[in-house]
Here is the input.
Amino acid sequence: QVQLVESGGGLVQAGGSLRLSCAASGGTFSWYVMGWFRRAPENEREFVASVSPSGGTTYYADSVKGRFTISRDNAKNTVYLQMNSLKPEDTAVYYCARGPTYISRTLSSAPASYAYWGQGTQVTVSS
Here is the structure.
């Protein structure tokens, strides 16, 4: 039984930083692509970032490139999302997800590529 549990969300002022964590259990964490997605009110779920099983390859949405950094610690079965220079438009529920065993930009940005999802953590950025 695969479980993903996000933490680290909260309320922050514009320009501030947050670090999200996602702890995984069940399955072999280091085999799989991990991704972060977000959903703002009345919006569809959108891709934020993904990381390859080894951690050596990452992809980002254009809207967060240069501000967010995805990383993983396979020894701790945890994936992170460091979010800097936050903007009000980053306000959303953030979800981590476990994807396929190999990474490509197209595949890893599609929600349908991910079989398991966490419950989400709320990030609110005030102006």
The chain has a mean pLDDT of 96. Residues 10 and 36 are 16 Å apart (CA to CA).
